[in-house]
Amino acid sequence: MDTVADAEVFEMMINGKQKKAGHYDSVRNPADLSTIGFAPRGDAEALDEAVAAARAAFADWSGRPEAERQEACRAIANIIAENQAELARLVTLETGKPLKGLGAEFEIGGCIGWSQATAEFSLPPTILQDDENARIELRHVPVGVVGSITPWNWPLLIAVWHILPAIRTGNTVVIKPSPYSPLGTLRLVELMNEVLPAGVVNVVSGGNELGALISSHSDIDKIVFTGSTATGEKIMQAAAPGMKRLTLELGGNDAGIVLPDADPSVVAEGIFWGAFINAGQTCAALKRLYVHSSIYDDVCDALVAYASQVPMGNGLIETNALGPLQNQNQFEKVKDLVEDAKRSGARVLTGGSPLGSGYFYPVTLLADAKDGMRVVDQEQFGPVLPIICYDEISEAIESANHLPFGLCASVWGSDKDALAAVADKLVAGTVYVNKHADIAPHVPFGGVKSSGLGVEFGIDGLKAYTNIKVINCAA
Ligand code: NAD
């Protein structure tokens, strides 16, 4: 284990107690590559222990009254709120995102809001028939032990999205955060354990191999995974034996279409934050923009002007609105895609080369981008927006829909009928009109095609953590 003064050692939580590991990995701040803490490297034995604890806790937790599980969700919201400054700082340190703006404090605010909202949802039984022939009741029952595997971009918010509906509906959980950003989740689960019975929520940390062990574990009943499409496909295969239930929230390559009647100065701000929230490291960020030829130059100019006043830098400095890329792989990938785009004829309007320290890459707007360029066809997951010119709306719709992704899409303009007509034709789990990347706890969210399987949030999201059970009685 490296030794760095002041870097804290974090622990896994299994059955309500801290669990030590044989090895600890340093976790680095992407803004300056300093070590900010050490995460335990969990192994198969720790995972088995966590699953056994979750299984043992399930028997009691699944039988608790609804009101008690609602109260537990409220208690989680409260304990997150009481510790929000500490959690937000941890998120900034391990992801690089700014504390302010659409950054770490916003993320922790989301954790509180989603926990509160999940407390208030319910899935009462439905009477499907009650007459002289039969009484038939539909119940939603918990699936059992849920294995949750999360990415590094919104680590705590995604943890809450996985854990809260699972426990609200009577399941128990073993969560594994990304090895790039495990510290906040280790602390979050420790806090949750202050208000939950032992074993209801357990956390193990480690690398991809630990994720693979979770997705094939014989005593886990459901996997909820947020991450890349490539990993989602592996999980789906590993989860096949025993028919594990699956929720997969995967990659996106969201298109935005700007209609000829859009006012560039009005839409620029929404498009900018739709694309550059969390420096583009957001599944539902706008990742390619199709703009009508009649306003193409004006939209490019408006975006460049907006970008010029958005400061990027160390997230702990409160004036910064954007931070670095979270890890070296992502940094190299973004750099490579931009270089490839330049060679293929894209014109750099702003940004276009790394900033020199940490994993900072500037906001990069690429004009004259075309379908077929890698920066357009692949998910960049970074602060890069290729802008493509179109003449006919049918071409733009075809371009928006032709890739294997289908998380979100958006259309921007003034005429309501024209906006609605385009929205109807876009193939995605969510189509936004004059906004992008806007989510809420009561609105189901999920991808079509290779962007995912199943939905999160709202009543549909709760249902995803249950099996149906029909009680069919003769009259
Ligand atoms: P990733 O798939 O590399 O890793 C995500 C998690 O999966 C990590 O915890 C990792 O350790 C684990 N993992 C890796 N290999 C595994 C395996 N074989 N079996 C089981 N688990 C394994 O993704 P990432 O790089 O952390 O995140 C970026 C990706 O996540 C992007 O594609 C992004 O679009 C997607 N994402 C999607 C959503 C959504 O809601 N749709 C939200 C956030 C991120």
Description:
By secondary structure, this protein is of the alpha/beta class. It has 15 helices and 21 strands. It has helices spanning 44-61, 66-82, 84-95, 104-120, 155-168, 183-195, 208-215, 229-238, 264-276, 296-307, 328-343, 374-377, 393-401, 416-425, 458-463, and strands spanning 8-9, 12-14, 17-19, 24-28, 35-40, 126-130, 134-142, 145-149, 172-176, 201-203, 222-226, 245-249, 254-258, 286-292, 347-350, 364-369, 384-390, 408-412, 430-433, 452-453, 466-474. The strands form 5 sheets. Strands 15-16-17-14-13-18-19 form a 7-stranded mixed sheet, with helices on both faces. Strands 10-9-8-11-12-20 form a 6-stranded mixed sheet, sandwiched between helices. A 3-stranded mixed sheet has the order 1-5-4, with no helix packed on it. Helix 12 (374-377) links the parallel strand 16 (364-369) and strand 17 (384-390). Helix 2 (66-82) runs antiparallel to helix 4 and helix 3 crosses helix 4 (104-120). The radius of gyration is 23 Å and the shape is globular. The chain starts with 7 loop residues before the first strand and ends with a strand. Nicotinamide-adenine-dinucleotide is lined by residues 149-153, 176, 178-179, 207-208, 211-212, 215, 226-228, 231, 234-235, 249-252, 283, 379, 381, 407, 447, 452.
